[in-house]
Amino acid sequence: MAAAEEDLLGLGDGGEGKSGAAEDSKDGGKDAEPSFDWMPDGCVQMADGEYDVVVMGTGFTECLLSGLLSVMGMKVLVVDRNNYYGSEAASLNLTNLYKRFHDGASPQADFFATIGGANGPAKDRDFNVDLVPKFIMAHGNLVKILLHTKVTRYLDFKSIDGSFVVKGSKVHKVPATPQEALASSLMGMFEKRRFRTFLIYVADYDKDDPTTFKGRDLNAMTAQELYGAFGLDTYTQEFIGHAMALYMNDEYLSQPAVHLVNAVQLYSNSLTNYENAPSPYLYPMYGLGGLPESFSRLAAINGGTFMLNRDVDEILFDAEGKAWGIRGGNEVAKATMFIGEPSYFPAELVRATGQVVRSLCFLDHLPKNVGQCQTGQIILPGSQVGRQNDIYISFMSKKLEVVAPGVCLAIVSTRVEGHQNPVSEVEPGIALLGAGILQRFDSVSDCYEPVEDGLSNKCFISKSYDETSHFKTAADDVLDMYYRVTGEELDMSIDPKVPEPGDY
After folding, report:
1. Which of 2, 187, 192, 378 is most deeply packed, by most CB within 10 A?
2. To the nearest 10°, the Cα dihedral for 367, 371, 373, 379?
3. CA triple 33-36-39, angle to 5 deg
4. What is the CA radius of gyration of the chain?
5. Do the Cβ atoms of 310 and 77 come closer than 8 Å?
């Protein structure tokens, strides 16, 4: 596509629905272009020139915030160096996926033939491959945000078939019903009773009702002490902390137990949010790319301008160190605040938090020991393989319209712990996929977070996506950034149930 096309419909390749100022400037202008006393010598306006907010990148966090702020009446400009929505969390077809991992080179015919197998060469239209796949907790903050903005009208969701955890070298299904819990081999009979007693306590706990505390101060006692109070063994603790509360490592054990209880309550509420749900997770049809596109559509409806295939050469600061504009080539846009991914900002404004390694694998079979589940999450606790951090596996099929029939997409990820060969750190997860990987794409990504809150320099920077296969941390980052940008908490009192067709 041509550089700097403004896509006001949030649909991908520019095209329809241009903003007036941007369109006129391309065609020579129906009226004289406005002049700005702040414009640097030799530069011209980017799009309309002046905005309330400039957003850099079209990842989940950035597009979500652009939608929320545009609904508030702010004038928003969104720029992205890529020619597609989603940035680091995009959904790509096979051709674009191959190009991303091979320096822009186009795939050969045998690449499509290998993935397609007996069904014939694979076709781009059948694939929407998420670079950073994350499942959505059905009762979590992200669902509340989606409903708050009503972007669910643009999306269709399906429940994920199962959640699994590894014990020893075997994959076990995390029980979704009392019957599954009784039949599960994760725990012995006596341990199941203790586990049940713990879950009853968690379900009954209400921070506003001291009678549910049962004499325990969960703000004072640690998670480890709470486990001990119920006599839970080491593996049950691991199972609860990692497969239900979704902690990435064991640091939570020394933190106040109330955080553990809240996390387990979220898992349980997500599991019961929909009748007969096989897991607590949801996923949008056709991949996660639909999320940023839907929020882009929301922003466009409310007057936002989107410019794809447009990089930002620099952020402009005044003498006091406060950002006032961006420059791309000889075009400049001015705003009162700037939101974006770490890669768009000067190095001194972000700090490294580690690395994440991911392996995207195409299979002609499902991972081992997942039964008939076509979609799911497998968590391999780090302690099971001598690691500090967990290994996450998400697998998806045609059921979610992300791959062709007969193909399974599995993504294995973990936090790099300093090994000379980071890709080798996902091998325990790769082993759970079984023999016969058709194609594999490995990546190692640097992770960053902002050095400061952005209130003084007006640079509000999102955190890099972590290794988890769920949206818990990403949704928390959105809420934190929304508060810093607006000074207000986002209303999260909405009932977190995705509406059925016809609800709007």
Report:
1. 378
2. -50
3. 110
4. 24
5. no
Selection from 287, 282, 284 nearest residue 92 by Cα: 287
Q: Based on the number of CB atoms within 10 Å of its own CB, is 31 exposed (0-12), middle (13-18) or buried (19 or more)?
A: exposed
What are 317's strand-pairing partners? 323
Q: Which two tokens stand for residue 362?
A: 């195409």
Q: Are strands 437-450 and 305-308 parallel, antiparallel or unpaired?
A: unpaired
What tokens does 135 get? 């499942």
CA dihedral 185, 189, 194, 200 (to 10 degrees): 70
pLDDT tens digit string along 63-111?
Answer: 989 999 999 999 999 999 998 888 888 999 999 999 999 999 999 999 9
Q: Is-contact 74 302, C-beta < 8 A?
A: no
- In this structure, the number of other CB atoms found within 10 A of the CB of residue 49 comes to 23
**Rounded to whole angstroms, how far apart are CA atoms 470 and 475?**
10
Residue 441 bridge partners (DSSP): 360
Q: 469 and 380 in contact (C-beta within 8 Å)?
A: no
Confidence category of residue 499, pLDDT binned at 50, 70, 90: low
Q: 348: helix, coil or strand?
A: helix
Record the tokens describing residue 407, joined without a space.
Answer: 């193909």
Confidence of residue 231 (pLDDT cuts 50, 70, 90): very high
**Edge-to-edge strand list for the sheet holding 391-396:** 170-173, 162-167, 376-380, 391-396, 408-415, 350-363, 437-450
One DSSP character per residue, 300-320 reads: HHTT-EEEES----EEEE-TT
Site of tokens 């545009």: 70
Cβ–Cβ under 8 Å, residues 193 and 230: no
Given a contact cutoff of 8 angstroms between Cβ atoms, the answer to whether 76 and 55 are in contact is: yes
Contacts (Cβ under 8 Å, ≥6 apart) of 271: 138, 176, 277, 279, 280
* d(C-alpha 125, C-alpha 354), whole Å: 35
> Does residue 179 have a pLDDT over 90?
no
d(C-alpha 9, C-alpha 28), whole Å = 24
The Cβ-side half-sphere exposure at 299, using a 13 Å CA radius, reads 34
For residues 444 and 356, the answer to whether their CB atoms sit within 8 Å is: yes
Query: Is residue 429 classed as helix, strand or coil in its secondary structure?
Result: helix
**Alpha-carbon gap, residue 324 to 337, rounded angstroms:** 7
Per DSSP, 135 falls in state B
- Per-residue HEC secondary structure of 53-108 comes to EEEECCCHHHHHHHHHHHHCCCCEEEECCCCCCCHHHCEECHHHHHHHHCCCCCCC
**CA–CA separation, 378 and 370 (whole Å):** 9
